[in-house]
Amino acid sequence: MIGIAYRLINSVITLVEQSEIALCRMSAPLRFDGRVVLVTGAGGGLGREYALAFAERGASVVVNDLGGSTKGEGRSTSAADKVVDEIRAKGGKAVANYDSVEDGERLIQTALDAFGRIDILVNNAGILRDRSFPRTSDLDWDLIHRIHLRASFMVTRAAWNHMKNQKFGRIIMTSSAAGIYGNFGQANYSAAKLGVLGLANVLAIEGRKYNIHCNTIAPTAGSRLTKEVLPPDLVESFKAEYVAPVVLWLCHESCKENGSVFEVGAGWIGKLRWERTQGRIVRKKNEPMTPEAVQEKWEEICDFENAVKPQNIQDSVGILVDVLAKIDKEQDVSANKTSAFAYKHSDINPDQAIGKVLPKMNFTYSSIQSILYALGVGMSTKEPDHLKFLYERHEEFSCFPTFGVIPSQASMMNGGLSDIPGLQIDMSRLLHGEQYLELYRPLPTSGTLTSQTTVVDILDKGSGAVILLDVHTYDGENLLCYNQYSLFIVGAGGFGGKRTSEKAKGTVKPPNRAPDAVVTDVTSQDQAALYRLSGDWNPLHIDPNFAAMAGFDKPILHGLCSFGYAARHVLKQYADNDILKFKAIKVRFMKPVIPGQSLQTEMWQEGSRIHFQMKVKETNQIVLGDSYVDLCDVPVTSPSKKQQKALQSDLIFAEIGRRIKDVGKELVKKVNAVFQWEITKDGITASQWTIDLKNGSGSLYKGLAQNKADVTFSLSDEDFMEVVHGKLNPQKAFFAGKLKVKGNIMLSQKLETILKDYAKL
Ligand code: NAI
């Protein structure tokens, strides 16, 4: 007896404890204060319930209802008015709209007129005109399509740009189990309701980048629509208030759900998704495909064992591309049940793949490709020393060293990487993680090069797999360059492999001091469009829709384009653009760059190794990190040595600063421009100054211009002093290549106004 009492007390305690835990886990109430919601068909049934629930939680609600019959006949204002009165009686905010949902613009206008915005749209209004299929009239078909499908389009389109501009929108589409599964007598309704789901699928994709989410529900609730079809006790039990909470959650700003479909009713919510059998290939290479072959494999085609769950259109098309390759290789086309063709995102087996060598691939190019590449990585005729990479008749016409990635990439991509056994990778999940390039001799400006790719290692990083590929590129017999690609395959990890590899060319952190030199360059809006002509055709870099699908606002720049920029900056800063000094480069790709952004390379010299990182100047985000270039035979300037050498120009700038304090206002009036200076010492940038004679009463500061500089002058400390002392005419210095000018060159005429008084210093 005591034992029973003890157990009873214990279970009560457990229950109390559990409910306390449950209480602790309860989240803050979901509020909609400041949000404006439009619920269509809110004069009764489910819509009324949504409207009341949103208003109760602080939203301003537009209650739309035409007030007609269930068949779509007649109209009245009373349905909407009643719900508005109910909301207002409880202290909520609501206005009525009596238009048909087909007049989408007018519904949205009511929201804008009454509350100034539209945040949430619940497409709910609906009617029924059930008939067995052969008795369905044109009117039965058209009216149902107009009210359910076309009106959902009309109202949503009217709301779309407002949501897009404010970067927030939540849309609910109302489908039906009849549409998903079919129901006798509802051909018109089922077709329209599944059409609504198709519409929602696309809106979810197109809206994602604007924080517009679109989800679909297939509700079941007792209402005037269902009271004809459901038994009376179920009409009573399936309350509309059991559907409203999921609609509110899906419309809350904190809900990340997008593009999903839910069945909901009686207090239960389930999520739906597609499932596909593994399928079978029923065609053989060079043989016609026959219905008999389909018949023979029918059972296997329809067998849901080990079914896959495709999630997007890439999953749908991707398998077909794989099928083509498999048929071509006559793989897996036998009727052998045990070798059923299976499609997974990525299927990695290191034991099978490591050491595999792809067939040798030839890459033929002319001087046009060399020049296109140079343009692609930002070379410009504005820079006199870029001409040797841009002009095929230049006496030193050269191929820029990082062009070495181009033939290797072509070989890797075309050499059948995804056909390697144990290396079935879904290319849409591939990220370029790191890149190493080493040059053994200068690249010819044209020719035919041969490359060979080897899978050297595969690492398991948990969240993904890293594939290390070595590519050796030859000019005839001569080894020209070596690339190592480090490719990250998202979601392909967890196969129990090792995490590191002694074969990996590692990245190295830069020294812990301020950079020794900084070079900034602006990419053009068309930089990716230009770079892709060197052979990287991934639509991510040109097609806005494709970029949006990948989650980017705009097409992004190729990582290997920023890589080329960085190499250019280092080679110019430390090797006077001498390609013979280039030995190797290693980068880690950290973040994407949007064409048009400014790239800022921060460099540190440690002997012949130049450590660098590249930032996007506008966002200050590191895009290439822990990177380095190894040079051959460069004069070594240790930072400590550099610091010892005081710059004469510093004194002049200090004096200019003092003068600006005195007569800055006057100078701003006369000059009205921002000047940036890059002063070099022994061939490297030693200091940077900005003279702002455009804003306020003028200012001078060390470092690059905080806002855009109108003109940038680069010259050595010595030449700067010569100019200041009037011994070197700026124009002459420019033509002699001693003074480099970027930006508005005409402003150099105003230099005298700034510098003339300092000759005496
Ligand atoms: P209901 O008939 O109670 O509510 C629909 C409302 O839409 C009515 O107040 C009606 O006046 C309004 N409406 C009809 N045509 C309109 C138009 N042209 N313009 C403006 N308002 C219009 O029906 P219920 O059950 O609340 O249905 C709501 C939605 O849920 C409908 O889209 C329906 O197809 C869908 N649904 C409902 C199910 C259920 O079990 N109740 C099952 C599956 C889907």
Which secondary structure elements does this structure contain, and how are they paired or packed?
Elements (H helix, E strand, L loop, with lengths): L1 H24 L10 E4 L5 H12 L3 E5 L13 H12 L3 E5 L6 H12 L4 E4 L14 H29 L2 E6 L2 H5 L5 H21 L4 E9 L11 H6 L6 H8 L9 E5 L2 E5 L18 H11 L11 H16 L18 E2 L1 H4 L7 E5 L1 H10 L10 H4 L14 H10 L8 E2 L5 E10 L7 E14 L3 E12 L2 E13 L26 E6 L4 H5 L12 H6 L9 H17 L6 E8 L8 E9 L2 E8 L4 E11 L7 H6 L3 H24 L1 E9 L2 E10 L5 E4 L8 E6 H8 L5 H6 L4 E4 L7 H5 L6
Parallel strand pairs: 1-2, 1-4, 2-3, 4-5, 5-6, 6-7, 21-24
Antiparallel strand pairs: 7-8, 9-11, 10-13, 12-15, 12-17, 13-14, 14-15, 16-18, 17-20, 18-19, 19-20, 21-22, 22-23, 24-25
Helix pairs in contact: 2-9, 4-5, 5-7
1,4-dihydronicotinamide adenine dinucleotide binds next to helix 2 and strand 6.
Description:
With 761 residues, this protein is of the alpha/beta class. Helices cover 34% and strands 23% of the residues. The protein has 23 helices and 25 strands. Strands 10-13-14-15-12-17-20-19-18-16 form a 10-stranded antiparallel sheet. Strands 3-2-1-4-5-6-7-8 form an 8-stranded mixed sheet, with helices on both faces. It has a 5-stranded mixed sheet with strand order 23-22-21-24-25. Strand 22 and strand 23 form a beta hairpin. The termini are far apart. The N terminus is likely disordered. The structure holds 1,4-dihydronicotinamide adenine dinucleotide (NAI). 1,4-dihydronicotinamide adenine dinucleotide binds next to helix 2 and strand 6.
